[in-house]
Design brief:
The complex is a heterodimer.
Chain A: H1 6-13, H2 17-39, H3 42-59, H4 69-91, H5 111-130, H6 133-144, H7 149-156, H8 160-179, H9 182-185
Helix pairs in contact in A: 1-2, 2-3, 2-4, 3-4, 4-7, 6-8, 7-8
Chain B: H1 3-11, H2 21-33, H3 35-53, H4 63-78, H5 80-94, H6 96-140, H7 142-150, H8 158-162
Helix pairs in contact in B: 1-3, 2-3
The chains are: A mainly alpha, B mainly alpha.
Chain lengths: ~190, ~160
């Protein structure tokens, strides 16, 4: 995620909607992607994204620059997405919809690349669908968003060893699913 | 390094590049000599690490920002006073040193005033008592005071009536 200047944040805190739009432009990709990966559903991802930005706007005035703005946004997004995901997973099975969620940059890709990307996206969603919300979140933050263990622990407000355990169990589950248990137990 | 420990690290710190160079070297050496761990490393890379690394970033639809903006406007129109209070609170927080100084000055002023009030009352009481004392002395002084007063000859002295 690109850095946001302190001035932009301060302007948005004072109610400048253009400054808030700048924040949205920089952070919405992360929030929307995370929401989409957590729910596998476009409408749900839009609902979460909207909810996250309304929460950010409401609490922005209380942000005092003591922690990193990026981590602060991550935390709001992650909490909203995981709460939604837990609530929804109890009610219905996930529905995977990919058709119109792929990045616009894809238009420039060749048909073959686009096809490969789509195939990869389907694979990712099926992988993430195997995991529980906590494991899924750790995998997204680490393997897709590239956050360090420390950043994940800070974002989720958990111990760094909890992050390690969740990642280990997630990967064990995936390996067992795709290659059989013997690969781990051998 | 034991297989169990190597597998644990393979699935966590090693796969994520969070391992120190020494440990990394140990694991590589272990993988070279252990077929099971070598297979696990390959499976991890092929099935998990690489596909996730190549995932594309999704962008929200353009209308989403308009929806958010509209919701913000509606909310602000509904609660303009709440918004004003929050802004004021923020201004006070931002000017923390000046605000703290002003608060301290105000507290000192209040304390000083509270101390001054009993002191000025005490002064007033003392001055009243002094005046009364002086007056009583004046009355008590037979020749210069009361007697002189009687000598004016108003004829109202209690002694004149009874004696």
């Amino acid at each position: 995620m690109q850095d946001i200047s302190k001035d932009t944040i301060a302007q948005a805190q004072m109610g400048d909607i253009d400054a808030f739009e700048k924040i949205y432009n920089v952070t919405s990709g992360f929030v929307y992607s995370l929401s989409l990966r957590m729910t596998s559903n476009k409408e749900d991802a839009e609902e979460i994204t909207q909810d996250v930005f309304l929460k950010i706007h409401k609490s922005l005035k209380r942000f005092e620059f003591r922690s990193s703005f990026k981590t602060w946004v991550y935390r709001i997004a992650v909490n909203t997405a995981i709460n939604f995901s837990r609530r929804v997973s109890k009610k219905k099975a996930d529905t995977v919809k990919y058709d119109d969620t792929v990045d616009t940059a894809e238009e420039k890709d060749t048909m073959r690349d686009a096809h490969e990307k789509e195939h990869n996206e389907k694979l990712i969603q099926s992988m993430l669908g195997i995991l529980n919300p906590d494991q899924r979140l750790c995998m997204i933050l680490r393997n897709i968003e590239g956050l360090s263990y420390e950043e994940i622990a800070e974002t989720l407000k958990v111990n760094i060893n909890t992050v390690r355990t969740r990642l280990k169990r997630a990967r064990e589950k995936l390996i067992s699913h795709f290659h059989g248990k013997e690969v781990i137990c051998r | 390094m034991k297989c169990e420990r190597a597998k644990e690290l393979l699935m966590t710190d090693y796969a994520d590049g969070e391992l120190g160079k020494t440990y990394e070297k140990d694991i590589r050496q272990h993988i070279r000599n252990c077929k099971g761990c070598e297979e696990l490393e390959k499976a991890l890379k092929k099935t998990i690490i690489e596909p996730l690394k190549d995932s594309s970033r999704h962008t929200p639809p353009a209308y989403l920002w308009n929806n958010i903006k509209e919701s913000i406007n509606v909310k602000q129109a509904k609660n303009p006073i709440e918004d004003m209070i929050v802004n004021l609170g923020m201004l006070l927080r931002k000017r923390k040193p000046a605000f703290a100084f002003a608060t301290a000055a105000a507290i000192l002023l209040v304390v000083a005033t509270l101390i001054q009030i009993p002191m000025s009352r005490e002064k007033a009481v003392n001055s009243y008592l002094n005046e009364q004392g002086e007056f009583l002395n004046y009355l008590g002084n037979g020749e210069n005071g009361y007697a002189e007063f009687n000598s004016e000859g108003l004829g109202t002295g209690i002694e004149e009536i009874f004696l």
